[in-house]
Amino acid sequence: MIKILLIAPYTGMTQVVKQLDIPKDFQLDIKVANLEESISLARKAEDEGYDLIISRGGTASLVEKNVSIPVIHIDITGYDMLRVFTLIRGAQNTVAFIGFENICRGARTLNDILDYDVKMFTIHKRDEVRLLLNKLKNENYEIVIGDVVTVEEAQKIGLRGFLITSGKEAIFDAFDEARRTYHMFQKVSYKTDQYQQILQSLPTDIIVINQQEKVLFNNLSPNKERIVKKLLYDKELGKNIHQALSLNEKQWAHISSENEDFELQIFPVTSRETKLAGIHLCSYKRKDESAAFRMITKKIHQPILGGSTYAQSIKNKIYAFANTTDNLFISGEFGTGKMTIAQSIHFQKFESNHPLFILNCEIIDSDDLKTLKDRWVSVQKGTAIFEHVESLSPTNQKLLIELFHQIPESLQLIFLANEQASSLIEKKHIFVSLIEKIDPIFIHTQPLRNRKEDLREFISYYLSEFHTRFGNETLGIRSDALEILMRLDWPGNLVELKKKIRELSLRAVGYYIENKDVKEILHEDALKEQNKPLENKGFYIPPGLTLEEMEQRIIQKVLEEEKENQTRTAKRLGMNRTTLWRKLNDK
Fold first, then answer.
1. Beta carbons of 90 and 211 less than 8 angstroms apart
2. What is the dihedral sign for C-alpha 564, 565, 566, 572?
3. Which are the contacts of 471, defined by CB distance < 8 A and separation ≥ 6?
């Protein structure tokens, strides 16, 4: 049995592999990691006795430099390039292909044969990518084809990236090469007794030290590594480490600092020559953390799609508002892209250089609002997005008004609501004084039924996303199938559209969504609607469900009836908004 670790540089590759018939002589494990992220996985795989590693592109090259076991490269085939060229066929924007010479050579030939208007750019070093992308952006290129790094870098500067994914043909070729290589290297073993015993004893999120408190090994993220290393200077932890080693028993420690709480397990690790101590980070929590409050420091750009007059208007507004410090109030139906617009304004203004705060007003409480002042003291620039602002209680609205005096002027505030401010004031869901204090510029988003000319571009975008993330082979939609979708009203807007396209992409047999696929799924939806009256006044819980599953059915039904308003849903269910939020996210 050949023990293989496949390190996929993007999630969609894992889905492609899972659809294949894995050779019977392979024990294949799959992990997702790209470039530097893959090094720790590869080293761990070597220590755990994997015979070889399969990966692609720069990730494969980097892994090869850091391990002794063989690394098999997944090549990019002509089929792979043909797929991505098909995805961007008909694009109205200027398209650039970026790659090393060995990739560009085949792509250039394919481009010439098929008479595509894709401009080819060859790079010789990875460092050239960012400089070239900035140059292309200045030359009004909007779409870039390339590998994982190229696509990620393109998104960071606001370009739309299409990833060259690897299909089943390339992966089968890699399997054949892996088998040949294994038989050449099967007698080679790179293990040491010390690290073998360490890895046999490791829980997750650990750091291993010797008696001199020198760090020998860790599998933590950089942030957790920094935290635990800082903890090594804690005297109380030092006593626990000494006790674990002297008694040769596991010890638990709870360490509390001014801003953080830690739950740790210290365990002895034996070796031939010395005693080592392992520290397992069981839990870590900032004392001021809340489910209602998130800070994002690295934001990936999300494009505003569509060529309609409305879409162009939104793009112009984003550019204009990114050059002001005015507060904004974005309203519109559920699923019309309010959060995308808000985040695009932040990205246009700051890219990833300053933090983005997101506050969920449906579950925020008074303590959350009181801690915001301390969280923002050190913020020089950034954006704060208040979503579901119509759900703020009267008490929290008053606290928010008071908080405005303490918010830095350099922090732009954006408020999101499912209804226009005038309607919310009329219904007494929001104070007039709060709107006066915000003094915002108002933006109202259009529902999808009013901008159906953008439907094709949204579908293309979702299909490319599913192709990259899940390995779906659906590349487009037939015109007659699109015509049917154009006739629908889409009450759930983009959320409903994305869900429907996901279902259709899974149902499609070939590379395109066909007319019959759309008709079948709409027929099934219609049957469900017709049967609703027979199911206990529109709601039916089938037998055999667990209590938790029944609870989820009830929550989702009430949420649907309340048009995704979590405040009204929680009130009907007799629970607070925090409990509802937790149950929705634990499902």
1. no
2. negative
3. 12, 13, 14, 15, 16, 17, 18, 19, 165
Q: Residue 144, Cα to own-chain centre: how many angstroms? A: 20
Query: Which of the 8 DSSP states describes residue 268?
Result: E
For the segment 496-512, the average pLDDT, to the nearest whole number, is: 90
Q: Are strands 206-209 and 215-218 parallel, antiparallel or unpaired?
A: antiparallel
Has this prediction a pTM greater than 0.85?
Answer: no
Cβ atoms 474, 508 nearer than 8 A: yes
Cα–Cα distance for residue pair 554/64, rounded to 1 Å: 52
| Position 9 confidence tier, pLDDT thresholds 50, 70, 90 | very high
Are 361 and 290 in contact by the 8 Å Cβ rule? The answer is no
Distances (CA, A) of 153 to 9, 120, 127, 171, 352: 15, 17, 11, 26, 12
Residue closest to 245 by CA, chosen among 279, 211, 273: 211
- pLDDT score, position 557: 80
**Residues paired with 98 in a beta bridge:** 121
pLDDT of residue 538: 53
Q: Which of 119-123, 267-271, 563-567 has the lowest mean pLDDT?
A: 563-567
Contacts of 110 (CB under 8 A, 6+ apart): 78, 81, 82, 85, 116
Max CA distance (Å), the chain: 78
Q: What are phi and psi of 337, to 5 degrees?
A: 90, 25
Residues 6+ apart with CB under 8 A from 238: 213, 232
What integer pLDDT is reported at residue 420 of this predicted model?
Answer: 92
Where are any strands of DSSP class E within 292-435? 293-296, 328-331, 356-360, 382-387, 411-417
Average pLDDT in the chain: 83
Contact 418, 390 (CB under 8 A): yes
